[in-house]
UniProtKB/TrEMBL annotation:
The keyword Transcription does not apply. Keywords: Hydrolase. It comes from the Bacteria. It holds the Pfam family Abhydrolase_6. Residues 34-120 form the AB hydrolase-1 domain. SUPFAM superfamilies: alpha/beta-Hydrolases. Coiled coil: none annotated. This is Alpha/beta hydrolase. GO terms for molecular function: hydrolase activity. The keyword Hydrolase applies.
Length: 195
């Protein structure tokens, strides 16, 4: 999705007192790792004034956020929304017949990460309304948001994990997701929902 898709979520963070900036990246042309390098540079510029710089990434954006901060001690917390942090079953299935659709990000989507070892507290919100790509790909046998399985979001080493009734795309429009995210950015824990 393009950066404008994060607009409603950004407005909800602003209403809660946060200043926001949407970071756009070209996932097909540049890939997750190169985009993470760009994000890391942007973070260093934003943090020059001191204070925390929080990150909220959706789907691949969560992986990009973690890659950008794994070796940085910049203050702030990170939230991943529907991010296939352990690798994506949907991406593995798509790669069998149309890997070109994932561009330079395909390998990272398939591989994911093995553990969070960075200094930031990371919170993950997964969805459990199974409407999306998975239906076209034959479905998943467990809880999912239609694109990412809940199990794929449970990266060892994260601070907190929450599952909410939202589809993959719906995560960025959900008021419950925004409320839970604000709570995590302020305290390092999600305040409600199922773990």
């Amino acid at each position: 999705m393009r950066g404008f898709a994060m607009g409603m979520l950004a407005r909800r963070f602003q209403a809660a007192g946060f200043r926001t900036k949407v970071f756009e990246y070209a996932s097909l042309a540049h890939g997750a790792d190169r985009s993470a390098e760009r994000l890391g540079e942007s973070l260093r510029q934003l943090s020059d004034g001191g204070g925390a710089v929080h990150l909220v990434g959706h789907s691949l954006g969560g992986l990009v956020a973690l890659l950008a901060t794994v070796d940085q001690s910049l203050p702030g917390r990170t939230i991943c929304l529907g991010s296939p942090l352990l690798g994506s079953e949907a991406a593995r299935r798509v790669a069998k017949f149309a890997s070109w659709t994932m561009g330079e990000s395909g390998d990272r989507l398939i591989a994911g990460l093995d553990h969070w070892r960075g200094p930031r507290e990371v919170g993950v919100i997964a969805g459990r309304l199974p409407y999306g790509l998975a239906q076209v790909l034959g479905g998943f046998g467990d809880d999912n948001d239609g694109t990412v399985r809940v199990a794929e979001t449970q990266l060892p080493g994260i601070q907190d994990h929450l599952v909410l009734p939202a589809s993959h795309s719906g995560l960025v429009f959900s008021q419950d997701v925004a409320n839970a995210s604000v709570g995590f950015l302020r305290t390092g824990r999600f305040a409600f929902g199922s773990r």
